[in-house]
């Protein structure tokens, strides 16, 4: 945790829609995670690899490793932004070919089957999710290393 002092992550084991995941995070005074740097992205991936490596079933289906992130393109199709901060994305980690909006995909996930890169998919699909509770926020730090 020392990479992000003051920040706390919660990896939801239940599977819910994107909006229910966001509501769950808010109920904990948190939010769906907004991934602003490569370091944060790498940190989340490393945590998920540990979580799923230690799962009782060692043959975890990577398609099950799917976690909602705090962004969508509901407001303007094709323009993804972080919902809580209402900011466009300066750092992105999309899987090759994503976002593709096949059949109308407006919410963002971090997907194990896509080498832990991002994908867009329908918001009503039940998935795990990651909440983030920042210790403090400063817009001045966004986009800087
Ligand atoms: Ca879309
Ligand atoms: Ca997609």
Question: What does the model show?
Answer:
The chain starts with 7 loop residues before the first strand and ends in a 12-residue tail after the last strand. Mean pLDDT is 87; it is low at 136-145. Strand 6 (107-111) and strand 7 (117-121) form a beta hairpin. It has helices at residues 18-27, 38-53; strands spanning 8-16, 31-32, 66-72, 81-82, 87-88, 107-111, 117-121, 127-133. It has 145 residues and is an alpha+beta fold. It binds calcium ion (CA) (2 copies).
Q: Give the number of domains.
A: 1
Number of strands: 8
For the sheet with most strands, the description reads: 8 strands, mixed
Q: In CATH, what is the class? A: Alpha Beta
The end-to-end span amounts to 17 Å
Q: What is the strand content?
A: 25-35%
Assign the CATH architecture: Roll
CATH H-level superfamily title: Mannose-Binding Protein A, subunit A
Unreliable stretches (pLDDT < 50, length at least 5) are: 136-145
Task: Write out key terms for the chains shown.
145 residues; alpha+beta; Mannose-Binding Protein A, Chain A; 8-stranded mixed beta sheet; binds calcium ion; Perlucin-like isoform X3; CTDL_fold
Summarize the structure.
The chain is of the alpha+beta class and 145 residues long. It is 18% helix and 27% strand. Bound molecules: calcium ion (2 copies).
SSE topology sketch:
Layout: E1 8-16, H1 18-27, E2 31-32, H2 38-53, E3 66-72, E4 81-82, E5 87-88, E6 107-111, E7 117-121, E8 127-133
Parallel strand pairs: 3-8
Antiparallel strand pairs: 1-8, 2-8, 3-4, 3-6, 4-5, 6-7
The structure holds calcium ion (2 copies).
């Amino acid at each position: 945790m020392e990479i992000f002092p003051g920040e706390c992550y919660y990896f939801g084991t239940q599977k819910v829609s994107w909006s229910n995941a966001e509501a769950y995070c808010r109920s904990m005074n948190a939010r769906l995670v907004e991934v602003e740097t490569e370091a944060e992205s790498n940190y989340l991936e490393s945590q998920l690899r540990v979580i799923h490596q230690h799962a009782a079933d060692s043959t975890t289906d990577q398609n099950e490793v799917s976690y909602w992130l705090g962004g969508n393109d509901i407001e303007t199709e094709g323009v993804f932004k972080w919902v809580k901060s209402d900011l466009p994305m300066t750092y992105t980690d999309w899987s090759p070919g994503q976002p593709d909006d096949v059949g109308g995909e407006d919410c963002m996930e971090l997907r194990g089957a896509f080498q832990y890169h991002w994908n867009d998919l329908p918001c009503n699909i039940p998935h795990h999710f990651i909440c983030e509770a920042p210790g403090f926020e400063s817009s001045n730090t966004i986009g800087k290393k």
